[in-house]
Design brief:
Chain A is built from nine helices and ten strands. Chain A is α/β, with parallel strands linked by helices and 247 residues long. In chain A, strand 4 and strand 5 form a beta hairpin. Chain B is 88% helix and 0% strand. Classes of the chains: A alpha/beta (247), B mainly alpha (260).
Chain lengths: 247, 260
Amino acid sequence: MIRFENVVKSFGSKHILKGVSFEIMPGEILFILGRSGTGKSVTLKTLVGLLKPDSGNVIIRNQKDGKDLQVQSLDQEGLNLARKICGMVFQHPALLDSLTIFENVAFGLRDLNEEDKRKRVLECLKLVHLDENILNLKPPEISYGMQKRVSIARTIAPGPQYLLFDEPTTGLDPITTNAINELINELARTLNVTSLVVSHDMGCALDIADRILVLDNGGILAMGSVNEIRNSKEPLIVDFLSEVLST
Amino acid sequence: MISFLKTLILELGSQALFLQKVLAVWVRHMGASRKLVFEQIADVGSRSLFTVCFAGFFVGAILVVQFSLMLANYDALTFLGGLNTSATVREIGPLIISFLLAGKVGAYTTAELGTMRVTEQIDAVSCLGTDPILYLVVPRFLAIVICSILLLAFGLFVGVMGSIFVAQNLYNMNYLQYIQSVPKFTDMFTVLGSVFKCFVYGIIVATVSTYKGFNASGGARGVGKAVTECAVYTNLFIVFANYVTSQLLNIFQTFWMGMQ
């Protein structure tokens, strides 16, 4: 379970989150939708401690021991644990160019010996439908879509309990976008992890989300099941839906 | 003017805090990133060695051309070697090498870290449980500082060789005659002072470039801005540090000579 309690975040005079509260249930896929600049990515970054909220609480439950971690009050060690529990896939593939694909995927596996590391890397690459012949290549030598898959493999390698996706299909062609969306759905079901996806792709949200949260003007405009959102009369949601229908 | 000074002081403060953070992380994990430091030293060294040697040779050569004209007027060409070497070791060598390092390695480091920042690689490193300062900044920082001293040694050597070459071939001066006057103007204190200056400038280049890159924001435009700011602040801080270190070394030298 992840819980946001009245989270406020501003950058100078720009108020991004004005007291956002919601909860993510174990095993579900929650989509956060909204226009650009409404605080979708800020919400994710607050969750993994990359940004500190001005006020409010962000709580992550460690499903292994049932203990709650209050993100903003964690020290570096606690933050590392929170980040191990919550694997984050960034908008860009964010792979380190100087490392090979193997080294990138194995980046978060420092505790394993070489043999186990290799086994785990191959396992994760298989989960994202990539072949082992790319192991020794550097990120610029593979396509952007493959880099996205490698970045997902890197995130799932340490075995997170929650998967956070920050606009995972940005910059991808429609075919690769569909493939990545299917992959998100497949991973959530196969690995039985709770997923939080930040996107502006309403079509994808309607296809794979369990619940959808729409952010607007620093607050929650609507939150509910796919059917509830589909039947919403909010002008912004109607706009999002009409875009899906037109494509 | 006031706004410029305010910005300069704010920059100085922020960079001093960043330097403190980098040094604290390095001290806490000393030896943890040794392999990365060696990789970076090889990278920085190989990227700058030719440029430093090229510049060093011509700096030595230019000084011979300039000094020989003046000294010939006073019939004092026998002092050319000493005067030239002293100027190279004391001032021109460390300064030119630092400017080259700032332009080549400093700008590269800022662009590299800045791109990593805007493409979320630094955030990704954090999210995978690694301190990005330890993994990305400390190796680059140490490599620049260490390389600035190594490159100074190469640069000075090539500079002196360049000046001997020009003195011998264009001014028909015997190289032994050239070298003879060197100890009169250049002693161990001068050489150590030069190393000290280069060490200080190396810290400036390393701090400004890693700070600007690490804190870049705003996409490609932000990285461009960070690189420009890196060039401006590095040069400003080096010129200022040059004055301060020169004064300090003069005071030390006077004190040292008084003791003897």
